[in-house]
């Protein structure tokens, strides 16, 4: 039996480019330099005073093109 569930409360944001990791590192609470293709990290995005604006799960995806 298969089932489909709508997850409309979730979004996906894609960051790419040579400076993506360093940009994201300065914006979020987790150490994104530790992301690999085999793991994920939970974190939050906070304002300058430390108030949390959002939470997320980060995953590194390496695309291989032929």
From TrEMBL:
Gene3D superfamilies: Aminomethyltransferase beta-barrel domains. This is Uncharacterized protein. It comes from Psychrosphaera algicola. The lineage of its organism: Bacteria, Pseudomonadati, Pseudomonadota, Gammaproteobacteria, Alteromonadales.
């Amino acid at each position: 039996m298969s089932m489909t569930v709508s997850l409309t409360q979730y979004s996906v944001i894609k960051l790419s480019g040579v400076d993506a990791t360093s940009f994201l590192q300065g914006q979020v609470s987790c150490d994104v330099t530790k992301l690999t293709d085999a793991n994920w990290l939970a974190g939050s995005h906070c304002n300058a005073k430390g108030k949390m604006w959002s939470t997320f799960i980060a995953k590194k995806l390496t695309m291989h093109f032929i």
